Amino acid sequence: MAGRKAVPEVIWNRPERTGRGPRPSYSRADIAAAAVRIADAQGLDAVSMRHVAAELGCGTMSLYNYVPRKEDLYELMLDAVGAEHNFEDPSGDWRADMLRNAHQTRVIMHRHPWVPRLMAGVYGFSPNTLRYLEHCLACLEPLDLPYSTKMEMVALLNGVVTTYTANELATAERTRSMPWSEEEENAVRIAYLSSQVATGAYPRLAEAFMEDSGPIDLEAMFERALGRVLDGFDPKR
Amino acid sequence: MAGRKAVPEVIWNRPERTGRGPRPSYSRADIAAAAVRIADAQGLDAVSMRHVAAELGCGTMSLYNYVPRKEDLYELMLDAVGAEHNFEDPSGDWRADMLRNAHQTRVIMHRHPWVPRLMAGVYGFSPNTLRYLEHCLACLEPLDLPYSTKMEMVALLNGVVTTYTANELATAERTRSMPWSEEEENAVRIAYLSSQVATGAYPRLAEAFMEDSGPIDLEAMFERALGRVLDGFDPKR
DNA sequence: AGCGCACTACGTACACTGTACGTAACTAGG
DNA sequence: CCTAGTTACGTACAGTGTACGTAGTGCGCT
Fold this sequence. Notes:
Distance between the termini of chain A: 62 Å
InterPro entries (chains A, B): Homeodomain-like_sf, HTH-type_TetR-like_transc_reg, HTH_TetR, Repressor_TetR_C, Tet_transcr_reg_TetR-rel_C_sf
Mean pLDDT of chain A: 92
Domain HTH tetR-type (chains A, B): 25-85
Region (Disordered) (chains A, B): 1-26
Number of domains of chain A: 2
CATH superfamily of the largest domain in chain A: Tetracycline Repressor, domain 2
CATH architecture of the largest domain in chain A: Orthogonal Bundle
Radius of gyration of chain A: 22 Å
Protein name (chains A, B): TetR/AcrR family transcriptional regulator C-terminal domain-containing protein
Organism (chains A, B): Streptomyces vastus
Oligomer: homodimer
CATH class of the largest domain in chain A: Mainly Alpha
C-alpha cells in the first residue's frame, strides 16, 4: 500500500467524475477557461495556483482535486486554446488546406501570446491535439505518401509555425512584466546590435544589414517559410 | 534623478570591469560555467541564484553585481554553450556546410538538454550567436541569393533543429525532477495514446499507428527534415 | 436502510524562489 | 587625499508549488 502515487499520470485519463462523493463544483473546462483568462489578461507568469483558484472562487488547495500538478493545468490551457481551431471539410487541395491550418494556428497564438512559451515545456497529446492531427491527416488524404511521412510533415509544419510565431510575439510577451515598453526594449536591442556590427567583427552580417530590403514583412516571411516546407513534400515538384 | 533604472539593458553592453572599485572576483565566463555545470548535473530547475552563487563560492546577492536579472544569467548560459561550436572554414559546398552546422548544434543540445527550453524564453543575440550567424553567412557565400533570404534560411533551419531536438530531449529533461523513470513516463503516455486511438474517434490516426514502419529512427527523421528545408532554398532544383 | 469509503473542500505550513534595500570595505580618477 | 562608484553580502519580503490533516458529503454495497 506504500508509495502508490509514484507513477506517472496523464490527466486526460482521469475521469472528470467518479460517482462517489459530492459532485465537483467546477468542470475541467471551467478551470482551463479561468487560467486562460488570467494568462490573456495578465500574462503567463500571473497563472499561479492561487490566482486561478481565486478566479474560480475556490480555495487554493481545492484546485488540486482537479489538477494534480501545475503542469497539468498547463496541459488544460493548451487543450482549451486547441479547441479554438475551426476545422472545415478538406477541399481536396491539400496544400491550401494545410496553409489554412497553419494560418489558423498562427491567429490563435496571436490571440494567446503565451502559447508558444507553454508549448516548449509541455509534451503530450491532449484530446484537441489529437483532433488537430486527425484533421491534418484528413486534409492530406489526396497526397500519396506513407502516413509516417505525413506525420513528419505535420510535425515540421507545426514546428515552423510555432518558432515563427514565437519570434513575432517574443518581445510582446516579455515586456508584459517589465517596467518599460516594447518599443524601448526593441530600440535598445537594435542599438546594441548595430554597435556590435559596427565593430567590424562580423563583416557579412554588416553587409546583410546594409542591404536595403525595405520594411520587414513578418507575415510574408511566414508565408514563404510555409511554402518552402510544403514544397519539400510535394511529389509534383 | 528619479527612476533612472527604468530602462532596458542588454547585458553584453555592460563592461566586465569599469576601473573604479575593487576588482571583481569572477568573470562572466566563470559565472556562466558555474550555471552550466549545475544545469548539466541537476537540471535547469536547479539553476537558482542561490545555487549558482554557492557553486561560485560567493554570497547570493553578490551575483547581482554581475547579472542584473536572472534572465541575463540565462543569456550567459546560452552564450557559453554557443562557444562550443567548432567552426571550420567553409568548404565551398554550402549544403554540406550547413548540414554540418545543424548537426553540431544538435550535438551541443544533447550535451546540454536544457538548451531548447531556454531558447524558447530568451531572445536577443549574444556574441556567440552573432559569431554563429556570421559563420553561416560565410558558408552560404557560394549561394547567389540576397542576404535577406539567407537569413530566413538560417532562421528556418535553426528553428527546425531546435524543435526536433527539443522533442528528442523532452521526456529526458522532464523526468529529471520526477520520481519515476523516462521509460515509465513514456509507457504511460503511449498507453493513453493507444487507448484514445482505440476509441475509433481518430480513424486516420489509427491507420497511421497500424502502418508498420519499423522502429522510429529519430536521427534519420532529423536528417530528412533538414534536407527538405535546404531543398526549399536550392536554386538548382 | 445504513455503513463505509472515496471523494470534495480548504486552512495551515514548509521549503524555496527572485530580488529590493542597507551597510561595510575597497580602489581608481579628480 | 578624498570621494564617487564598485564589490560583497546579510536581511527581509512577497510570492511560489504543494504535502498534509481535517471536516463534510453522497454513491455503492451489503
